[in-house]
Design brief:
Blueprint (H helix, E strand, L loop, with lengths): L23 H11 L14 E3 L2 E11 L5 E2 L2 E2 H14 L3 E13 L4 H18 L3 E9 L7 E11 L15 E4 L5 H11 L15 H7 L6 E5 L5 H13 L3 E4 L7 H10 L13 E4 L4 H9 L8 E6 L8 E4 L5 E3 L13
Parallel strand pairs: 5-6, 10-13
Antiparallel strand pairs: 1-2, 2-7, 3-4, 5-7, 8-11, 8-12, 9-11, 10-12, 13-14
Helix pairs in contact: 2-3
């Protein structure tokens, strides 16, 4: 098994795997190379963007390169639907249409392609969103790894919900809709044959129904984010940075399945940086927190929802801290490198 260095060097002026990890090097790549070429037309860096001139419509696009294609709890087909639906949901939107583009390597067995597309179609039907357009390209052997999938989603915003990473406020409760670390450890274990896949199943699933359940709380729901690449650590750091607030979470309150904790201990990983595909983080005004938590728990996908922390009234702006099991505090840094490549 080979894991990429978590703190890669910059001797060569080339793209590194870590640039796609969703952490500090991703932000560096965006800030220094990608965004300057867009002449400031990119808007806020949220999971999805508002369509110019259509403030109730939201658009998001994503590409999926997961290896292996199939893993306990999902595959690249269902993952591509869930990931895009969830990005729309994090802006308070219901999915209304998807596009799908396939980049297929010559030599891929047609049976595997059929299974991927069957799963993708099933996931879209279960999410209640039609696939309305797409594209297919076939490239030579070695040009891609079996199949890559790109999806774009259009969503309709809830009238009452206007979540944004920049809207987190002092006093907000930090809610988590379910356990962390399941997806990343499942994919890694399956890829490397570690044996944990018998005990761990990816949490890949759509989250828009959880957001529907939060809609009655309206603008008391300040921020929504799904902690995918970079895990919970990256999501919380992005919110703390964009809202310029200090965030504190309680280690004892963060739900980490026992098998995930064991896998992370073995591999030297922090569960806070492991990717998820089926939980969300919500920053909710304190008076609405208990009701919002009950709403999340009312659905199967949110039955293990927990209140894991709060936004502090004072402290270092943009900093995330963890109150440990022994009562100490440590800073939760934005992940730097790619510890688990090819997990989404």
């Amino acid at each position: 098994m080979t894991l990429a260095c978590p703190t890669p060097h910059h001797e060569d002026d080339v793209v590194l795997l870590a640039h796609g990890a969703g952490g500090r090097l991703t932000a560096e790549l965006l800030d220094t190379l990608v965004l300057p070429t867009l002449d400031g037309q990119h808007g806020a860096l949220e999971d999805a963007a508002l369509l110019p001139g259509h403030p109730d419509l939201v658009i998001s696009t994503d590409s999926f390169v997961v290896s292996p294609l199939f893993f306990p709890g999902g595959d690249i087909g269902s993952l591509s639907v869930h990931g895009t639906v969830n990005d729309l949901a994090m802006r308070g939107a219901r999915p209304i249409a998807l596009s799908v583009a396939l980049m297929i390597e010559e030599g891929l067995p047609l049976g595997e392609l059929r299974d991927v597309l069957g799963s993708l179609g099933k996931a879209a039907r279960e999410a209640g969103v039609p696939v309305v357009t797409g594209d297919t390209k076939v490239v030579g052997r070695g040009a891609v790894d079996k199949i890559f999938v790109n999806t774009t989603g259009i969503g309709q915003r809830h009238l009452a919900l206007r979540p944004s990473a920049a809207l987190a406020r002092p006093g907000d409760a930090v809610l988590l809709s379910g356990p962390i670390g399941l997806h990343g450890t499942t994919v890694l274990s399956t890829r490397e044959g570690l044996g944990f896949e018998s005990d761990i199943v990816s949490d890949s699933r759509p989250l828009h129904r959880l957001v529907d359940a939060l809609a009655p709380f309206g603008q008391q729901v300040h921020t929504l984010r799904d902690p995918t690449r970079g895990g919970l650590a990256a999501a919380l750091n992005e919110i703390a940075r964009d809202a310029s607030v200090p965030v504190e979470i309680d280690e004892e309150a963060v739900p980490v399945p026992r098998a995930v904790a064991a896998a992370c201990d073995l591999l030297g990983l922090d569960p806070l940086v492991v990717a998820n595909e089926g939980c969300l983080v919500a920053f909710v005004a304190a008076p609405a927190a208990d009701g919002a938590l009950d709403a999340l728990r009312s659905l199967p996908e949110g039955r293990e929802a927990a209140r894991i922390g709060r936004v502090l009234a004072s402290g270092a702006e943009g900093r995330v801290t963890l109150r440990t099991l022994v009562g100490a505090r440590r800073v939760v840094e934005m992940p730097l490198g790619e510890q688990l490549p090819r997990i989404c």
